[in-house]
Write a structure and sequence with these properties.
Blueprint: E1 22-24, E2 33-38, E3 41-52, E4 58-64, E5 73-79, E6 84-88
Antiparallel strand pairs: 1-3, 2-3, 2-6, 3-4, 4-5
Length: 114
């Protein structure tokens, strides 16, 4: 039996927390990943974003299948935590802005036809 504690999802930011967190994202095809301890196993979790909060804490929003059912959910966890570990880094630099070239396979808008 493991003594690793499963991480609990972090609550969302609220105005009383101070300034909004600084949010970093990576290209869809080159995101870093964490592993999340859940159900007695490490679960692979690609990172959607890193949030740097004004109080100095860091939170990672990940996509993770918590129970092996192939039902992927989005969860945000505070870092560091014993139930989180790095799976791999990204080869790309993160960005704070919205850049359509970093959005992966999303369709692009074409010209309006009337």
């Amino acid at each position: 039996m493991s003594t690793i504690e499963e991480p609990q999802p972090a609550r969302p930011w609220r105005p009383e927390d101070g300034p909004q967190p600084e949010v970093w994202t990576w290209p869809a095809g080159d995101r870093p990943a964490l592993e999340v301890w859940s159900g007695g196993r490490w679960r692979y979790a690609p990172v959607r974003q890193r949030q740097n909060w004004a109080d100095g804490t860091v939170r990672y929003q990940v996509e993770v299948d918590l129970d092996g059912s192939r039902s992927v959910r989005t969860r945000t966890y505070q870092w560091p935590h014993e139930g989180l570990r790095v799976a791999h880094a990204s080869g790309s630099q993160p960005s704070r802005g919205v850049d359509e070239t970093r959005q992966g396979g999303l369709p692009r808008r074409g010209p309006v036809v009337r």
